[in-house]
Specification:
mainly alpha, elongated
Length: about 130
Amino acid sequence: MEVGPKLDVTGAAEFFRESPFQWVYFVADTAMLILSTGVCVYVMIQYRNQLSSITEILVGAVIFGMLYLWRAALRAHRQLHDLFQAGGIRDLDSGSALETALKVAASMIHLGLFYTFLLVGLLVMQFDRVLMRR
């Protein structure tokens, strides 16, 4: 995926006009957050006797970090959404610098959330595989 004026994330320029939950990519990111959190909680419960206290604290901190990142994305969306609602941003001309900036911002929100949640989920699934063999 390329970041810049040639973005291929559908609807990125329109992301800030409406609720973030109307953009399929943000909904997918939220689903990845839920799945990754579920995997973390599952591993913590399944292997509670094998994990050290510090490991449980660190996995809990990772869950907190993912939730904090998701909330930060909502706050960033809210700030730009409020500009649209107040009329600070009106029409987006196709190819304009503002449209490009909004596409990049929306795409980076998506990429940051999606890959963070995906990588955390994959890493914790590996904890499960390693601990299962013990």
